[in-house]
Amino acid sequence: MPESLIREEEPPSRRMKRYWKIAILANIKDDEHPKPEGVPPDAFADFDHIETIDSLRAALETDGHSTVFIQADRNLPYALREIKPDICFNIAEGLGGDAREAQVPALLEMLGIPYTGSRVLTNGISLDKTLTKRIWRDRRLPVAPFQEFIVGDEPLRAELKFPLFVKPAREGTGMGVDMKAIVNNEKELRERAMYIINTYQQPALVETFLPGREFTVGILGRADAKLYSRHPEWYEKDGFHRFPVLELDTTRSVTPWVYGLEAKSKDVGADGSPGYFCPADIEPDLEKKLKNFALRAHQLLYTLDVSRTDIRLDEDGNPRVMEINTLPGLTPDYSDLCLQAKAEGIRYEDLVLDILYLGASRWGMLEPREYIVETPKKK
Question: Which of 99, 145, 245, 255 could form a disulfide with 280 if both were Cys (CB 3.0 to 4.6 A apart)?
């Protein structure tokens, strides 16, 4: 529908029956206490800092809502029963297991509490990198050749040629990824695979090392996003917003060519951090292809509201989709998605509120904006 036919709208707060009590659900880093015995050295790396929670609360409260933070631990069911939130803004990573990012959505659905972001099945699948790649590959989305090692001595498939890249099959935030992740021969492969299997208690994902440039693309919206967004002008005709492509120059990082936890832990612009370039300096054809692949990756997993997909070029310059984050970080001026939004002039609070309203509308909490359709005049 042409933009000229969309009525100038009141803000969503006036299309709600009342303001909401919003519970922000997250797992918080605890740097003051030692990690439990038997966990990997980088366990809990994907947990958030309390400063991120403070930023989210401030953003949500700009539109009149009240907020409360609830730690997504084993006391969460009791806290939810006591606080009785209208909706939960979910960024919880979960507390272990193959599908830990699905734990909180599953609990909320059992309790009948609305929440933002993707639902149980999507969050469970997306953390399993092997399963995700199988889905993408079978639907003809380009991925690098890969193989999952469960015990470590499986025969290497013929299509996998050295150098290879080895990482945990069911982790995020660069966990288990350092310079030793790149292996150049059979001995290094077996040693690294066994290290991953024993340390992280999960399979190792082995894939062809991609030596080209690395990009990440954020996606926001759904088919009817314009009906519920505070900024319908963000969204294309299909209802999705493709953020500007962000290039990650890992060649200058503390771990060259490897965007692992050590590099990700550096502040933007600090010594040893990757270069972040947004929008990326790329040809229009490549930009279009990267955005199309990111949207396709998002849709094939039935992702909701928001995601961010990592893509890298192979030795021939062809894009290969690596992985998707259905719970992308939301730390201002640090998280990739926030850097992409900032690069095109989207304020942090507007990004956060659109994620909220997209989620809330799926639960019937927000009235759609109205369209005025002009009837063509008879000649």
Answer: 245
Dump strand ranges (E) for the chain: 21-26, 66-71, 87-90, 146-149, 164-168, 182-183, 204-208, 214-221, 240-242, 246-249, 275-277, 306-313, 319-325
Q: Answer for the pair 193, 149: CB distance below 8 angstroms, yes or no.
A: yes
- What was the pLDDT predicted at 15? 66
Q: Report the domain count for the chain.
A: 2
Say whether 131 sits in a helix, a strand or coil: helix
Answer whether residue 371 is part of any domain.
no
The two structure tokens encoding residue 119: 């639902």
Among 39, 348, 374, 315, which residue's Cα sits nearest to residue 175?
A: 39
Alpha-carbon 197 to chain mean position: 25
How many angstroms separate the CA atoms of 365 and 1, rounded?
Answer: 24
Q: Using the predicted structure, report yes or no on whether residue 137 has a pLDDT greater than 80.
A: yes
Q: Which residues, other chains included, contact 316 with Cβ-Cβ below 8 Å and sequence gap of 6+?
A: none
CA-to-CA distance for 205 and 147, rounded, in angstroms?
Answer: 6
Which range is least confidently modeled, 29-33, 43-47, 178-182, 235-239? Answer: 29-33
Identify the CATH number of the domain in which residue 293 sits.
3.30.470.20
Query: From CA 198, how far away is CA 190, in angstroms rounded?
Result: 12
Please report where in the chains the tokens 């290290």 appear, as a residue. Answer: 195
Average pLDDT, integer, range 169-176: 89
Sign of CA dihedral 111, 351, 98, 50: negative
Residues 164 and 220 in one domain: no
Structural domain of residue 204, as residue ranges?
145-208
Q: Do 79 and 195 sit in the same domain of this protein?
A: no
How many residues are present in the chain? 379
Q: Using CA atoms, how far apart are residues 14 and 256, in angstroms rounded to an integer?
A: 50
What does the pLDDT read at residue 271? 86
Rg value, the chain, Cα: 21
Share of the chain above pLDDT 70, in %: 92
Query: Taking residues 254-258, what's their average pLDDT?
Result: 85
139: left (phi over 0), alpha (psi -120 to 50) or beta: alpha
Instruction: Work out the number of other CB atoms within 10 angstroms of the CB of residue 217.
Output: 28
pLDDT(75) > 90: yes
Mean per-residue pLDDT over the chain, rounded? 91
